[in-house]
Design brief:
The chain has about 240 residues and is mainly alpha-helical. It has one domain (about 5-75, about 85-235): Ferritin, CATH 1.20.1260.10. It contains 7 helices and no strands. It has helices at about 5-35, 40-65, 90-120, 120-150, 160-170, 195-215, 220-235.
Length: about 240
Amino acid sequence: MVDPGRQHVDRVWGARYGVETGAALRFGSLSRRMWEAGAPEVLVELAAQASRDETRHASRCEDILRGRQATVPPPETRLLEYAPRDLTPEQRLTYEVVAQSCVSETESMATLVTLLDEARDPMLKAVIHELARDEVNHARIGWGYLAWAKQRMDLGFLAPLLPGMAAGTAGPDLFRPALPGTDEPTLYGSGVVPHSHRQRIYLETLESVVMPGMTEHAVGTGELRAWVDQRRTELEAALPGA
């Protein structure tokens, strides 16, 4: 009999493998582009190190999958970029750095820290600790880049684009109803956050980390706040008895 919970765990670790291999490509590209833009050498090297970290993370995910006797998916081989094409080259680079580091890596860090608190298996706990430690540094790249970039350009163009970044990082399924096997507390033991908890962590991280960071760098967060409030309203309306 098929165990939907087990299938879900396999899918999550497979998705992580794909995300890590893709992030290795993105950070490598961002390192080169930041160097070409004249960004501080420390940020260029941190992005290059992040690329190497992500390759190592993918290997850890592969180990988890093989230990579960689950299929290891093909690695991501496309260099994915998300910035609107009507932005200037400087703005597109800034968008990609913010989307990757300030949003995606910050969200990943929050998820991993939550899992670290819940993990019991020593091998799994060691892997999650390694990933979480590195994601902290990867998130710092974005905030450091914004501190440098705001002296050279008006970052206000980012404000209306933040909801799209948040939605893109969340993916198409995060704010949909939980599927069978995806919202059980026992998932924590396999390094997976239950669906409804992921929704909460995602929105709380936007509010407690991403929004204050953007405000500090003179990027308006009104439209991102409206996006978060709308997601909360939808989740509350979907609760039983609402």
